Amino acid sequence: MDAEKAVKKLERVIKENAFNAEEDHKTIQRQQATIDMNNNKIKTLKRNMDDSETQVSQLQSKLRKAQAELAEAEERADLAESSLSRAAGRNRAPLGESLGRSTFQETLEISRKMMKKKNK
After folding, report:
1. 74 near 105, Cβ under 8 Å?
2. Most buried in the list 10, 34, 54, 108, measured by CB within 10 Å?
């Protein structure tokens, strides 16, 4: 009788261990599925981050270009303004000294040359 009890007790322990092993296996599968899902999310986020960094780089490049164009435009405006001021001053001069128009034309020509260089 003691042997039968011992066998039944061992069978119960074996069944419990088998059940626990099966539950552990299911838990591992669920955790692996969660890990896989999180890895996919990470990959997607990394891709999005790379795309965003590329977009930021492109926007920064456009900003630098626009800033350079603005600086050139301001320089041309300053040149035109100073030429206009000189021309206005010369237009007030006696009739024989009226060179204002040619100075303004020179400034326009310089401005056109700068634009051509920029567009190359």
Report:
1. no
2. 108
Could you tell me if residue 98 is left (phi over 0), alpha (psi between -120 and 50 degrees) or otherwise beta?
beta
CA torsion, ordered 9, 15, 20, 23, to nearest 10 deg: -160
| Closest CA relative to residue 114, chosen from 79, 72, 77 | 72
Please list, in sequence order, all residues whose beta carbon lies within 8 angstroms of the beta carbon of residue 97, skipping any fewer than 6 positions away. 90
**The pair of three-digit structure tokens given for residue 92, joined into one six-digit string:** 């007030």
pTM above 0.85, yes or no: no
Give the model confidence (pLDDT) of 45-65 as tens digits: 999 999 999 999 999 999 999
- Give me the amino acid identity at 38: N
Contact 100, 87 (CB under 8 A): yes
* 102, 79 Cβ separation under 8 angstroms: no
How far, rounded to the nearest angstrom, does the alpha carbon of residue 6 sit from its chain's CA centroid?
Answer: 72
